[in-house]
Specification:
Mean pLDDT: 85
CATH architecture: 4-Layer Sandwich
Shape: globular
Largest sheet: 8 strands, mixed
Low-confidence stretches: 18-65
Strand order of the largest sheet: 1-2-3-4-5-8-9-10
Radius of gyration: 30 Å
Structural class: alpha/beta
CATH topology: Metallo-beta-lactamase, Chain A
CATH superfamily: Ribonuclease Z/Hydroxyacylglutathione hydrolase-like
Helix content: 10-25%
Number of strands: 17
Number of domains: 1
Strand content: 25-35%
CATH class: Alpha Beta
Oligomer: single chain
Bound molecules: zinc ion
Length: 297
């Protein structure tokens, strides 16, 4: 057989084979190229709404309890930043009891040791600089808890009835204002029932809610109240604690109304007992306020 008749077809077949092989390899490469990011630009961060933005440094604002951070005692906590960039931390103790931490200062609101099946070991807590008590009901005023938290310079701030029961404390009435420190201001605001027949629980003028302004960060602790008209005047609130258990405080619908009046950046339902937070979640969808549900039953 002549040499050319063998070698030329052989070369032709080889070139064709290499061509086909090359094409199939290129097709195999394509999917892996598709996996590389289409752009290397980073995702733009959402702009913060104000210097006292309520962006938490420890959680993403998801109200799923399992996503929240917990403190050394196991309580859920939320950290925010004041306008000057300092941390302010809220610890969800239970029901009406809130612990607030700022710049080595300890604030305890309505500390109560025993409530239903929950017990708080206030002896183990850091001593309080300020103890705020909204009113004299057993789920808000607990002399034993106050004793456990007190140190030499602790200031107890409360209403007249509590001060009388305790035998000490600074009395504030609705509308009173106090400067606790240079950058810490406190205002006592009304907290009462409006539904006919329920005024007896929290009569108007007796109990307090508090607006606590720490380093420009404004906290509204409503106390035991319904959605009273005075809430229209409570503005620029970063974080609001609103109670949600009938017949003593508000229904979820009332809480939504209160939120629409106050327009806080973040709302923590508290003092909510057995009230369904699912109902509240579904009702609070059309408000710019961010709902954070913590274990404040
Ligand atoms: Zn009460």
């Amino acid at each position: 057989m002549p040499y050319n008749k063998v070698i030329y077809p052989f070369i032709f077949i080889c070139i064709a084979a290499l061509f086909i092989f090359g094409c199939t390899q290129q097709q195999k490469v394509q999917p892996s190229e598709a996996q590389t990011p289409p752009q290397t630009q980073s995702t733009p961060q959402p702009a913060q709404s104000s210097p006292s933005s309520t962006t938490s440094v420890t959680n993403n604002g998801d109200s799923n309890m399992q996503n929240t951070q917990r403190d050394a005692f196991g309580y859920e906590m939320d950290v925010f930043q004041t306008p000057s960039g300092k941390n302010i931390t809220f610890h969800a103790i239970k029901h009406g009891s809130i612990r607030v931490e700022f710049d080595n200062l300890e604030f305890e609101i309505d500390p109560v040791i025993n409530l239903n099946d929950k017990k708080t070991d206030y002896q183990a807590f850091p001593d309080a600089d300020y103890i705020l008590v909204t009113h004299e009901h057993f789920d808000h005023l607990d002399p034993e808890a106050i004793q456990a938290l007190e140190k030499q310079n602790t200031e107890i701030i409360t209403n007249a009835a509590c001060a009388e029961k305790l035998g000490r404390g600074t009395v504030m009435a609705n509308g009173d204002k106090r400067v606790l420190r240079e950058n810490i201001h406190l205002e006592a605001v009304p907290a009462y029932n409006t539904t006919p027949g329920r005024e007896k629980y929290h009569p108007r003028g007796r109990d307090n809610g508090f607006i606590l302004t720490i380093d420009g960060f404004r906290i509204y602790i409503a106390g035991d109240t319904e959605d009273i008209p005075e809430m229209e005047g409570i503005k620029n609130i970063d974080v609001a604690f609103l109670p949600c258990n009938q017949p003593f405080t508000m229904t979820p619908a009332q809480l939504v109304h209160a939120t629409s009046m106050i327009q806080p950046k973040v709302v923590f339902p508290y003092h909510y007992g057995d009230t369904s937070m699912d109902e509240l979640k579904s009702l609070l969808t059309n408000t710019p306020s961010e709902l954070r549900i913590r274990q404040y039953q």
